[in-house]
Design a protein that fits this description.
By secondary structure, the chain is α/β, with parallel strands linked by helices. The protein contains 5 helices and 5 strands; from the N terminus they run βααββββααα.
């Protein structure tokens, strides 16, 4: 359901948190999944409320998002990164997290976001799942893992 457009970027070359957010948000905007103001609002929210989350084995994920008013259609965009980029820690913004995997959540209905975030957090407790996503070499593998954790 949230991968209708299959926005999965494997081995993305990003130089910073802003760069990866901008690259994924650009794809969402081009596909008219989000409004033109989406990128700016995700970046602003990331500064105020960081989304970097450390996972076991020195892995990290980030879950940038913004309010549903900037979204036309619910969608998740996923990127595994060629090299980790630094995000601020979700729990303690004074700390940094080297992120290998990014999920941009674009939910058109506010209630969808809470359930999806809960499922993402559940998946993150399984470092093998995160590691498998980071090292996936095709989109089908990514989708299979996400479906297992009810992120589809």
């Amino acid at each position: 359901m949230f991968f209708d457009e299959r926005i999965i970027e494997l081995g993305m070359d990003a130089k910073s948190d802003t760069d990866v957010i901008t690259q994924l948000a650009k794809i969402l905007t081009q596909k008219n999944i989000v409004k033109k103001s989406f990128t700016n609002h995700v970046l602003l929210r990331e500064k105020k409320f960081p989304t970097g989350l450390p996972v076991e084995n020195s892995l990290g994920i980030a879950i940038p998002h913004t309010d549903s008013i900037y979204v036309n259609k619910s969608q998740i965009a996923v990127a595994s990164l060629k090299k980790p980029v630094v995000f601020k820690n979700m729990v303690d913004a004074t700390k940094e997290v080297e992120v290998n995997l990014v999920f941009i959540i674009a939910m058109s209905q506010p209630h969808e976001q809470a359930n999806l975030l809960s499922n993402l957090m559940n998946m993150c407790q399984h470092s093998q799942a995160v590691e498998d996503l980071i090292h996936a070499n095709n989109e089908n593998t990514v989708e299979k893992i996400l479906k297992h954790y009810q992120l589809n």
